[in-house]
Every structure is written in C-alpha cells, then in structure tokens.
From TrEMBL:
InterPro entries: Epimerase_deHydtase, NAD(P)-bd_dom_sf, NAD(P)-dependent_oxidoreduct. Keywords: Membrane, Transmembrane, Transmembrane helix. Residues 2-237 form the NAD-dependent epimerase/dehydratase domain. This is NAD-dependent epimerase/dehydratase family protein. Pfam families: Epimerase. The chain crosses the membrane at residues 206-230. The keyword tRNA-binding does not apply. The keyword Transcription regulation does not apply. The lineage of its organism: Bacteria, Pseudomonadati, Bacteroidota, Flavobacteriia, Flavobacteriales.
Length: 333
C-alpha cells in the first residue's frame, strides 16, 4: 500500500492522480493523509478539473498530522512506500517555528516510522530553495552544490534543508530514499498558493513584471518524475526537477496569453522591490498584519539563478515539457 502525505496540496494531489490513473489502483491500495475535511475538497476539485472524478474514490483518506506521532503510527499500518509531500511554505518570519516543526520535525517523524515499518522506499519532495550555494567558479546550481552556512538563507530554505538532513539520516540507517528539488511548479487547482497566485494576479490585471530568472516545471512532470524514480532502481539520490530556466517576464506573458488578458509590461527594478519589502515590514509591524511581501520574496523576484537539470534528464525515459507550451496548452482557471 502507498502512503501520500500532503495529498491535499498541489504536488500530492497530482501524485495521487498519476498513481491511480497509471497503475489502476483501487481503494485499499493508496492512502492519503489529511488534516481537515475541507482540504479534501481541493483534491476532489482537482480530479474534476481533469475529468477524473471517478478515480477519486480509489483514495483511502486518513486523518492525521505529520507532527502527531500516535496518529501517524496508525496511518503507516500496511504501508510499503511513502511519498512525503506535506510541508508549509512561507517567507514570513512569524512562521519560522511552525515551519521548523512541520517541515523538519514532521519529516523526522516520517523517517522514523518508515524505518520502524520497514518501508521499501521514501520519496521526499523538497525544493530548489534547499540546494547549495554557487561557488565563485560555478555558473549553475547542481545537486552537488554545497550549502554554505555563512550565506544568508530564508527560514523556508533552512527548514527544507533541515528536512533533507533528516532524510539522509534515514538513508544512513538503512532506508532507501529519493529526494527531488522542484523549482517553481506550474499547475492548476490551487490559486491560493504558490504559482497559482500568479494566475490569479495576472487575471486581475497585473501590469508589472520583475527581471528575475529561475527554474520552472509543470506539476504533471513533477508527479511523473517522482513516481518514475520511486519505481526505478535509482535510490539514495537527489534530483533537481526543472524543465528549463526562464524569466518571470516570459512566464507571466505566457500566463496572460492563456487567460486572454493584457501582458504585464512595466519592469520593476531591484531598488523598487527593496523599498517595497521594507514598507511591507513597517506596515506589518504597525498594524500587526501578516507579511504580504517579504525580503525573501523580493530578492527571489529579481535574482537570476540558473539550475542544472542534466541529472534528471538522464534518469527519465521521456523529456520534460517546455513550460511555455504547457501553459499555452492547458486550462488553469
């Protein structure tokens, strides 16, 4: 039996769909953890988005939390392999403790129970945020890039890096593992988080774009890659999951074309972004509001980081989708 944590999120729900559809799984063969009943509806809506509502019934839902060990112990009963997708993503410093508890402590719990239950293989969905830093002689980030503790890293990156350390601890204790580090994941169904917010903002009429460059990948390719690697002989490896490095300008333009709205046309320079995150900090402090635009968000918007995808391209049995074509040829809202 397969266990999915984070089955009510973008990646977890697509892994559920891919597994059920490609492996003809039935109820009793795949279990997904959820924290509240309302969150299940998001996954159900996603299946309906793809006209696959009948496949939703194959999922055995189990109410649990990655920080609640007694409930997790019951969730692991009869499990053979695990896809660990559950995480909290935030760039607000107020969420630091929550991220450490869920992303690091929660992953440690998954690792410990995987070892105790003799799980055959564990796939951990990490992030490019947890990858190493560019050395002076490097031009692109690879799986071998070294994390430099003396460099500045945001709390989310630190929590995902800490989670990876728990995965490697499990590997040292005999657990077979796969770590994947996706870049910006583009996909439908979750407009209140991640790249889904880009679609929502462009739909409302986004006039501005930033000069940043980063790695992008379609969520369907993330799901396919995870399942392929788990069912292959590859083990105890990590893979950067990006289809290509591209600019935010190109991606936002492709989204605007997909939604049939005006493309963002005004470039925002780094100085303006630096001012904006400081203003947001002041407003948050004065009015006790949650951060809307953090330093990490601002610097990510104008940084130009190139990621290598050579390792995953060699491992897979088919090419990853061109991200602009993926946006052009699919429905998102």
């Amino acid at each position: 039996m397969i266990l999915i944590t984070g089955g009510t999120g973008l990646v977890g729900s697509h892994i559920l769909l891919h597994l059920i559809e490609s492996k003809n799984l039935r109820n009793g063969q795949i279990r997904a953890i959820y924290r509240d009943t309302d969150s299940i509806q998001k996954t159900k809506n996603l299946f309906a988005h793809y006209n696959k509502s009948t496949l939703f019934e194959a999922i055995e839902w189990f109410r649990a939390d990655v920080t609640n060990v007694p409930l997790l112990e019951k969730a692991f009963e009869g499990i053979d392999c695990v896809y660990h997708c559950a995480a909290i993503i935030s760039f607000d410093q107020k969420d630091e403790d929550k991220m450490r508890k869920i992303n690091i402590e929660g992953t440690a719990n998954i690792v410990n129970l995987s070892i105790a239950n003799k799980i055959t293989k564990l796939c951990y969905i990490s992030s490019t945020a947890a990858l190493g830093d560019l050395a002076p002689n490097e031009t692109e980030v690879t799986e071998e890039s070294q994390w430099n503790p003396d460099r500045s890293h945001n709390d989310y990156a630190i929590s995902k890096y800490g989670a990876e350390m728990e995965i490697w601890r499990g590997q040292q204790e005999g657990l077979d593992v796969i770590i994947v580090n996706p870049g910006v994941i583009i996909g439908p169904g979750f407009t209140d988080q991640g790249s889904g917010l880009l679609f929502k903002r462009v739909k409302k009429g986004l006039a501005f774009y930033t000069t940043g460059i980063t790695g992008f990948i379609a969520v369907t390719d993330v799901a396919y890659s995870c399942v392929y690697l788990m069912e292959s002989e590859y083990k105890n490896e990590k893979y950067i999951l990006i289809a290509e490095n591209n600019s935010y300008k190109n991606i936002l333009s492709a989204i605007a074309d997909n939604l049939k709205v005006k493309r963002p046309s005004i470039a925002v320079n780094p100085i303006v972004l630096e001012v904006l995150w400081r203003l947001d900090l002041a407003v948050s402090f004065v009015f006790r509001k949650k951060r809307g635009f953090t330093k990490a968000t601002a610097r990510g918007a104008y940084s130009q980081v190139i990621f290598s995808n050579e390792k995953i391209k060699k491992a897979l049995d088919k090419p990853l989708q061109n991200i602009e074509d993926y946006i052009k040829n699919n429905r998102f809202l």
